[in-house]
Structures are given as C-alpha cells and as structure tokens.
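Bug #77: duplicate submission created two jobs. Keeping one. Sequence:
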Amino acid sequence: MSSAAIRRSPAAAPSRQGRDDDARNPDDEPSSDEFAEKLLLGNSQIAKLREEHDIAENRPST
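Kept job's structure:
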C-alpha cells in the first residue's frame, strides 16, 4: 500500500466515534443570565484573592 493510500485510509485516521467530549447538548448549557452571574461571581472571587494576597493585575501602567 502506498503512503498516499495510507494517509487517505479511514483506518489511519483516529476514530471520533463514541467520543462525546466535543458534543454539546444545548439543554445542558446555562442561560446567558446564569452564565453572566457565574462570570461576575468568578471575577469578584479573583478580585478578593488578589486583595488577600496583594497581587497586582497584569495591566500595563500608563
């Protein structure tokens, strides 16, 4: 079998059948309001940790 035939062979390609790590179920996705709420909560937790540990934000000084 030539190398070109091997490259085109379905057996040569990794199988994606049975893998659901990339599959998305829209019913499992949070609504935009839920997502925004979680994002704000995460951002406030980050700010709190920065204050507790005296960590500056990675922003260029002007």
